[in-house]
Amino acid sequence: MGPGGILVSGRRGLDIQFGEYQLFKSERRLHGPQGSVQLGDRACEVLSVLLERASSVVGKNELLDAVWPNLAVEENTLQVHISALRKALGPNVIRTVHGRGYQYVGPPPTLSDHGIVERQVREGRTTDTSHNIVPAQGREASSTHVVILPFSSLLNDRFAEMVSDGLWEDVVIELGRYRHLAVTPYRSRLNGTVQNPSAVQVGRHLAADFVVEGRLRFVEQTIRMNVQLIDVETGMQVWGERFDFAATNVFSVQDSIVDALISHLSFNLDDAAQEKRTKDPTTSKTAYTYFLKARSTWRAGDEALAMQFAQKAVEADPRYGRAHAYVAFFYGYSLFSQQLGLGSDQTVELAEGALEQAMRCDRNDPFTLQKASMTLIMLGRPRDGLRLSEASLRIGARDGEIVMTHGHALIACGSYEKGRALMEQAMSPTKPFLVPPGFFCGLGEGRHICRDYAGSLAALEMMPDPPYYITLLKAANLARLGDREMARQIVDSAPVRFDTVRYARNMAKTCALAEDIEHYLASFRLAGIEV
Questions:
Q1: Where in the chain is the domain with CATH 1.10.10.10?
Q2: In 3-state terms, what secondary structure has residue 48?
Q3: Largest alpha-carbon pair distance within the chain?
Q4: Which residues lie closer than 8 Å to 244 by C-beta, 6 or more apart?
Q5: What is the edge-to-edge ordering of all strands in the sheet holding 109-112?
Q6: What whole-number distance in Å separates Cα of residue 363 and Cα of residue 324?
Q7: Mean pLDDT over residues 257-278, rounded?
């Protein structure tokens, strides 16, 4: 060990032992209590640098320069490998120091002789019982690293460029939800003499297994999307397909295009990599297709049909955690929309039953945790929702929907400033036409709880043709801003059988603090709801 807990860098060739783990650097292999994990070259180098600088903060630029010399690599590429290491080592070994870099904070590492330790491991007799290492039972499957190149447009047209960029962003986000895929969105160019590098060159420089590239063009009244999946090692195309969609209203079919791309890419990536599909506990393409249809119809505003598709996904695979979470979410949402025609007590009972099934199937999936968190908030259990949103954020911190939900949960539990900052953050990097409508609704609710009525109203006004129950929150904002006449008109225009009192009480229950509950109820009273 060098001064300050830093390993002597002149002995980089030797292996490193830290706690129950042994890094066999020449083999790119991490050995620990659960057996062996094969690391990618870059992940191994990142871990080596952090161990050699144990207890010190290593700047992000330092890591990038050490692991990717002479390459222009985006910071999210480094984050991909940090995430992979945390999956192998647990979440508490590598600490993120915001604004600076990363720090190894695990047991003190020591250099070891590869041959001695390897022989002791094979013979099952490590001399230090605190560092026992379970013999490997064969190589475990590691994450498949996929680089997503920007989707190009064959038209020199700003509108076509926006469409292709939007599709690219959605594919990056959706593929990023798969726990067995390490997804790198690539927008940079390589340093050096390589001009306009090929997909294979980009993939090799980023140590990827596969590269996805796509081209979009308009053929008369049709949107044509050509997508291919390339094996970086061989340079060969392992899958390719052309998608044709009517171009009459591109935004209405955008989700359909993304769903089709993801459905094909996700399963073909698994076939190509010959790895178990662990995104969810389902191997049923039928269940997965129903899940995608549920998501698409939900985004299109058809709540009842989305519920039907989610239930069909559960029927196709009763162990599909995400489908159960969607069913629970739709039941919770119906407390406000009143679209399913059920009483509050029955709705809560059904939602909690589906939620229990979702958690039983998969407690570690970020989508399941996010939907469960939002469901609990809607059921009037915001503190439980906050606990699950924290868990989902630890896994999917770059997912806008997860960030938005966590911000919502924080506000619901009284952490107004921090929660609002997260909600605004979730909105800021997204192009306006790509923001899911639910983001505006959630932001409107959060701002109202924070007593920003004008901001809440502005967020809700961004929703095209909102359903009636969302306009009731507009009425509450208008009443707070002094326009009680308009607020009353909205309340009086309630559809037949819509219970405004029930809606107002359920909205108030989403808050944990008594003063926020009363604040919500007072807003609705000002709007003319006798609650």
A1: 3-131
A2: helix
A3: 83
A4: 219, 222, 223, 224, 225
A5: 35-38, 29-32, 21-24, 15-18, 109-112
A6: 12
A7: 54
Structure tokens at 410: 């924080």
Classified as helix, coil or strand, 307 is: helix
Is pLDDT larger for residue 80 or for residue 282? 80
In this structure, which CATH number among 3.20.20.70, 1.10.10.10, 2.60.40.10, 2.50.20.10 belongs to the domain 3-131? 1.10.10.10
Give the angle 211-180-385 at the CA atoms, nearest 5°: 125
Q: How many CB atoms lie within 10 A of CB 509?
A: 19
Tokens 């067995």 identify what position?
Answer: 180
CB 278 within 8 A of CB 180: yes
Asked whether 229 and 212 are in contact (CB, 8 A), the reply is yes
For Cα atoms 384, 331, 426, give the angle at the middle one, nearest 5 degrees: 60
Region for residue 144 given its phi and psi (left: phi exceeds 0; alpha: psi -120 to 50; beta: otherwise): beta
Which position has the higher pLDDT, 479 or 247? 479
- Taking the C-alpha atoms of residue 133 and residue 154, their distance in angstroms, rounded to an integer, is 55
CATH superfamily of 144-264: TolB, N-terminal domain (3.40.50.10070)
The predicted model gives 428-445 an average pLDDT of 65
The mean pLDDT value of the chain amounts to: 77
35 Rama sector, left if φ>0, alpha if ψ -120 to 50, beta otherwise: left
Amino acid letter for position 372? A
Nearest Cα neighbor of 39 from 161, 140, 187 is: 140
